[in-house]
Amino acid sequence: METSLSVIATIMVGVLIWWPLQNLVLAVFAWRSPQRPRSVRRTPDPVPFWIVIPALNEERVIANTVRNALATGTRYTPVRVVVVDDASDDATPHILAGIRDPRLHVLRRELPMARQGKGEGLNTAYRYILDIARREGTIEQTIVGIVDGDGRCSEGMLDEIAELMAEKSVGAVQCRVRIHNRHKTLALLQDLEFGAIADSAQSLRDLVGSVGLGGNGQFTRLSVLARFHPGPWSACLVEDLELGLRLHLDGIRVRYTKSAWVTQQGLTDVKRLLRQRTRWAQGNLQCFRHLRRLTTSRFVSGFGLTDFLIYLLSPWLTVPMSLLLVGLVAASAVALATGSTPGGLVATVDTLPTSAAMLVGLAMLPSLLWGLVYWVRLRDENIFRCLFAGLLYPWFLALGIIATWRALFRLLSGRNGWAKTERLTEDGQAAPSVPMSVPMSVPMPAPASVPLPLPRPTTPPATVDPGVTQPIPAEVLAAAERTRPVPHPLAETEPTQRLERV
Length: 502
What we know:
- By secondary structure, the protein is α/β, with parallel strands linked by helices.
- Helix content is 45%, strand content 12%.
- It has 13 helices and eleven strands.
- It has helices at 2-28, 62-70, 92-97, 118-136, 157-164, 185-208, 222-225, 239-249, 270-286, 291-296, 302-338, 352-378, 383-413, and strands at residues 49-55, 79-86, 104-109, 143-146, 152-153, 170-179, 218-221, 253-264, 418-419, 435-436, 498-501.
- The strands form two sheets. It has a nine-stranded mixed β-sheet, with helices on both faces. Strands 9-10 form a two-stranded antiparallel sheet.
- Helix 3 links the parallel strand 2 (79-86) and strand 3 (104-109).
- Helix 9 (270-286) crosses helix 13 (383-413) and helix 12 packs across helix 13.
C-alpha cells in the first residue's frame, strides 16, 4: 500500500513540476520569428491563389468574409474565391448572389450529399479548382487556402505565403489565428490561447518540423493536395490536423508564420464552447491511429516526434490524470476529517496552508506568465485584462478536461454526428444550430476519373439558380469592406459569378 501511495505521490510531484517548466520553455518561443527562406528569390511571375470558404448557414458573416478574401489579392498574388455552400437554408445563397465579382465562384451542394462534414465540402472545392488549374496549366503554381465563414485575412497575407512557398521544399503554410470579438471575457481567453500559447507552440514546431495545420488560415500547394486525390481531407472531426499529419508522413514540409494571420469569432457561451472543444478532443483521439506510422517515419525528426507524441497522447492521458487529481482531492478531504495523511500522500493539518499555497502557485504562475507574454507581444489589450485572462485560464483548461471526457464517451459509443458551430451577431447572440445528422463516416462518392496522371473529376454542367437572384440586403453589407480593383488575369473569360450545383 505504501509503495502504491509513493508511486502516486511521485507522479503528482512530477506533473506539478512539469507544468510550469513546460510553459516556461514554451513562452520563450513567443519571441521567435520563423526564419525566412535563404538564397531563394521569388520569380516575377504571379502566384495564383484560391481561397476556399466552406459555408453552411453563414448569413451573419459571409458577406464581409468574402469581400475581405477578395481584397487580399494583389498584382503578384491574384486571388479567386470559391464558396462551398453546403445546402444552406438561410439567406446565405441570396447574399452570395448579391456580391457581383468575377473572381467569386459558388458551389452549391445539395442534400442528401451535403452536410457530411467540412472535409467533404473542402474536397468538392479542391476537385473544382484542380479541374480549372489543369485547363489553365497552373497546377504547380496554384496555392489553395482555407478561410472559415467568419475569417478575416490580414493585409499582405498572400505575399507572405508566396514568399515562404518560394522555397520548393515547403508544401504548406499555417498562419497565425486571432479572435476579433475579444471584448468578451470568454473570447479573450480564446485569443490568449490562439494568439500567445498556440503561437509559441507553432513557433517551436516550425523549428523542429512538426507544424500543425488549423482549419482557418491554412495554405497548401495544389500539387501537394493532388497527391491525395480525390480527397485530401478526410471525415475526421479535425480534418485539418489530420491533413497536416499526412503531409508530414509524406515528407512535405509545413511552415508557420506569425506575421500573416486570420481572425475569427470566439465563442462567448460556455455550452457552445464546450461542444466545440469536445469535437476537437474527439478528433484528436481519432488521430491517434497515425502514431505508429509517425514513430517509424523517416521524415519525422526525433524532436518532431516528441512533439507529435505529446499532443497525440495528451487527450488519452487527460482521463487517468484527472481521476488521479480527483483521488488526491478526496484523500485530502479524508485527511482533514481524520487527521491521517494516507501514508504521507497529503499534507498534515499543520502544513496544509503552506502546501495549498505552493499548489495554487504552481498552477497559477504559468497562467499569469502567459497573460504577461500576451500583453508584451501583442500590445492590443491593456495589461490588467491580460493578467485577468491569465488568472482565469486554469478554469478555461478545466473545460478542456470535461470536453475530453465527453469526447471519449462519444468515441466509445460511435457517435460522430455534430451540430455546426454557430456564428454570432455583433451583440454576441448566436444563430440557431444546424444539425449535421448524417454520419461523418459515410463517404461522398468520388467523381469518375479518366486515365491521366491526375484524373479529371466529372462535374455537372454549370447552372444558375433562379432562387438566388435577389439582391444582397443593405443591412448585411452595411459594414462590408469594398474589394480593391485587382482583377484576376483570367477574369475577362469568366462570368460575373459562377454558381454550380455539385
